[in-house]
Queue: 2 jobs
Job 1
Amino acid sequence: MVPLIEINGLTKYFGDLCAVDHIDLEVGNEIFGLLGPNGAGKSTTVRLLTTLLTPNSGSARVCGYDVVKEPNKVRESISYVPQDMAVDIKLTGRENVRLYAKIYRVPDRENQVDNVLELMELTERADDLVRTYSGGMRRRLELAQALVHKPNVLFLDEPTLGLDVAARKKIWEHISMLRERGMTIFMTTHYMEEADEYCDRVAIIDKGNIVTVDSPKNLKQRLGTGASMNDVFLENIKTAEEEGFDAFRFRSMLRRRT
Ligand SMILES: Nc1ncnc2c1ncn2[C@@H]1O[C@H](COP(=O)(O)OP(=O)(O)OP(=O)(O)O)[C@@H](O)[C@H]1O
């Protein structure tokens, strides 16, 4: 596996709180899911890897570039789709993507805008205002924007959050298609069944520590016949429970989100 993302002892404090605690990870050309309860450190990890935060110690390389020493090179090689809407509803889909193409100084701009709209199956609605788009279409538009400068690694924070079942399935079809075209996807999710079905490997993070990393299949097998990813998740955050952490909160969160 050629690592597209290499993380060594990466650590981030917010005041006294250690949000990411000496994590080590290697991610190759795959769909990699970072799972964990609320406040576990998922978004902080993604923000460190996308150069939006600076670590207190440790290092990370993305596409061969150091996130602290070569942030511009990292940004040119990646895209990041955060949870909150990153599209302007007062513009058309095409205008939104065009804006990104301009910011990234994409060569042969109009062609590339057409290409990514087509890739996300938005061509027919490309000239309609985004205000009229469904949630799933808006998410696909965010992906189109993210793809316009041809990144090698795509970071997605909860890509299917808030979408209905059909829209979630469609987003996953698109993410899987990108993976088949050679893109590396690093994503966070609370949907265990989606991680199970679509991720090549997952890591579970709890209180800033990576508790386990493997394929969903291997993780389930380790627990025994009939185990689900929910079981894997709960098993791996058990330590927190044993330490008196509020397991009820985790479980109710899981029930809400799965
Ligand atoms: N800018 C910040 N300032 C202070 N504390 C922060 C900041 N960002 C995150 N934290 C804290 O760091 C810890 C990890 O937060 P993070 O957002 O990375 O968790 P998460 O796993 O993404 O959670 P969620 O699933 O709820 O999005 C939490 O305790 C959070 O309150």
Job 2
Amino acid sequence: MMKKNVFDSKIKAAEALAEYAAGEIARKSGYFNLAVSGGSTPAGFFSLLASKYQKVVNWSKVRLFWVDERCVSPDHEESNYRMTSETLLDHIPLPAENVFRMRGEEDPEEEARRYGNTLKELVPSGEGIPVFDMILLGMGDDGHTASIFPDQISLMNSSEICQTAVHPVSGQRRITITGPVINKGKKVVFLVTGDGKRAMMEKIFRHDPVYPASLVQPKSGELLFYLDKGADPS
Ligand SMILES: O=C1O[C@H](COP(=O)(O)O)[C@@H](O)[C@H](O)[C@H]1O
């Protein structure tokens, strides 16, 4: 099932998503396994969780994972972990043992293997694939999602849980969960904002198969879009 939610501003989209995520966490008994994206878009959502929902959410039941990471040290300005720490983790009582970062500073191939094994060990699986309670995705204006870029679209159909990737322009190495893991998620949520994303969003809603974000089609989970009106093509 697919549901599109459009809001007047990116702050309103982040507010609605924070309310939704907090509700989903509250509804779950046992661990809530959440995988988050990086880049710049989730910062507002994370900040809201860290302020408005800091005392509302039972953070000890959240286990936090990453959808993708840039192969840099965790204090690097481009680190997805660093962005999440500064906007969310530094402000909430989420136990350190519930935080499972991708180690961008390690050898990428080894780290992709290690992280895949961590996911297999900790996240309940279906048909051998980890099933996250929620996966937060972003979309680049080139149609990539996670660190799966159009020129490496085979990662959407990989037999691995986690793989390495390369940014097509900068050549920066990346580690990413693969398409089958994304499509196993119970709630797969795109947060996309800004006029600059509208043209690509239109292609994604047309399911243009050239773009990885178009191939996000959860098998039995729910696909949700949180957009601001700038990113909405309709
Ligand atoms: O490189 C990345 O890009 C996407 C989109 O980022 P945004 O800054 O345009 O929101 C992001 O979802 C991914 O996690 C990140 O590594």
